[in-house]
Amino acid sequence: MTKALISVTGLDTTGIIARVATKLSDLNINILDITQTILDGYFTMMMVVDLDGAHMEFADIDRELQSVRDELRMTIHMQRMDIFDAMHRV
Amino acid sequence: MIETGEILQTMHMIQQENFDIRTITLGINLLDCSDADPEKCARRVYDKVCTTARDLVKTGEDLERELGIPIVNKRISVTPVSLIAQGDPLPIAKALDDAAREMGVNFIGGYSALMQKGATRADERLLASIPEVLTVTERLCSSVNVGSTRAGINMNAVREMGEIIRKTAENTAAQDGLGCAKLVVFANAVEDNPFMAGAFCGIGEPEAAINVGVSGPGVVKTALEAVRGEPFDVVAETIKRTAFKITRVGQLVAREASQRLGIPFGIVDLSLAPTPARGDSVARILEEMGLERTGAPGTTAALALLNDAVKKGGVMASNHVGGLSGAFIPVSEDIGMIEAAQCGALTLEKLEAMTCVCSVGLDMIAVPGDTSAATISGIIADEAAIGMVNNKTTAVRIIPAVGKAAGDTVEFGGLLGFAPVIPVNGYACEDFIARGGRIPAPLHSLRN
């Protein structure tokens, strides 16, 4: 399983989770975990997803997320979970 | 499952504290490129580098995107050129520079000679060509090993290097002596160092190897801010924990790069390598320990603790640690060092003391333009002696600032930064350097 973290930050508005989740669903990417909070009006969400269902290259998936970035005007980063596992789990 | 706090910590390290992978360096063996015809040798070198390294930059960029961590440099190190150059080494130098440009790497290292015990004819030809080569090439880096704990110090080479550094500075005076920033004089040079300008692929290395250098002085500095006033036991422990985390990411990148390129993983070099950017300074870590300025009494002790704790933390995080591993103290590449040198807190003599306990040596130091070749050789001899006696790598990368005096500034730009010209002891050592010969290896070299 290729797990990735998708972090979404920016000004809070209606339908952020729905928009991101719909895009992931379209790409056949399964969501494994979601943490979300509002800090001083700033929406902060972290999703752990499984990329294997998409059968696409990492860069292509990231490119697909561009339309969501443009539409929501939010910062959306995707990076593989391996970096967090390497740093925090022995 | 990883906790949110841990994810945020990693992101904070990368986004706010300048944590990055400083370099993926591909070591390439060139021994099979040697030929009596220099032009033919150069063609073979170019072809081999371009074949072996063709996917290096793309792989680095892919990993950077996927893992979300900057991989600042992708570089190449090759077999010391004096070992393959049977004739004029200049065509090989140009071929390496062209190959670096073609591959999109900013530096290629290995225009080198290992002459701690004496010079071959090829070593002599290579040395003589260094000032011209560093003037006509853009990305090629040169290094010369003049001493080792096993062999002693080749004082003939030390004498020549003083003159070569002066000539290189004069040739590149219009760029503030930039050529000298690409020239390192080593004692106890290591074969798997991924950092420039001293990287080369030693003869004990495999056909090719991936060596990765991590960095992150800003991360260590931030971690120490949380333990202000605590005893040194706590300071050392905090640095170790931080170094462990940094190195684990280096190990991950090295493993992935190795798999994708189909080239064996060599080592992770767990060095704290500063840049001139704010928040990316080794000097600031020393100051965080309680020094008003780097160079103040206590600086050497602080650096000794830092260097050791980085190694202890990092060594558990990687299955092969090597290179130079420790804390670098280049003056022009570290804003805290630059400021300390500018205000007079940090002198050449204090820097020399610091090199007894740092990972390398006198690095990126600008000295007055009228500093004689013999004085530069004297500085090299002192530094090589520290390396030889203490069983450690030491180096000198010094820039005579032609036409400038103490207090002026030289500017190299980019990662090489800028440096104040600092004064040098004015008493002469001409007669000492003129002797030549070899300083014998110390007693403790006889360890068998």
CATH architecture descriptor text of chain B: Alpha-Beta Barrel
Q: Reading side by side through the largest sheet of chain A, how are the strands ordered? A: 2-3-1-4
Largest sheet of chain A: 4 strands, antiparallel
Rg on CA atoms of chain B, Å: 21 Å
Taking pLDDT < 50 over at least 5 consecutive residues as the criterion, the unreliable ranges of chain B are none
Going by helix content, strand content and strand pairing, the class of chain B is: alpha/beta
User: Helical percent range of chain B?
Assistant: 40-55%
> What is the multimeric organization of the chains shown?
heterodimer
Count of the separate structural domains of chain A: 1
Computed Rg of chain A: 13 Å
The profile of the biggest β sheet of chain B is: 11 strands, mixed
Per CATH, the superfamily of chain A is: ACT domain
**What order do the helices and strands of chain B follow?**
HEHHEHEHEEHHEEHHEEHHEHHEHEEEHE
Instruction: Give the overall pLDDT of chain B as a whole number.
Output: 96
Number of domains of chain B: 1
Give the class of chain A from helix and strand content and strand pairing: alpha+beta
Number of strands of chain A: 4
Shape of chain A: globular
Largest interface in this structure: A-B, 22 and 19 residues
Determine the mean pLDDT of chain A.
93
CATH topology of chain A: Alpha-Beta Plaits
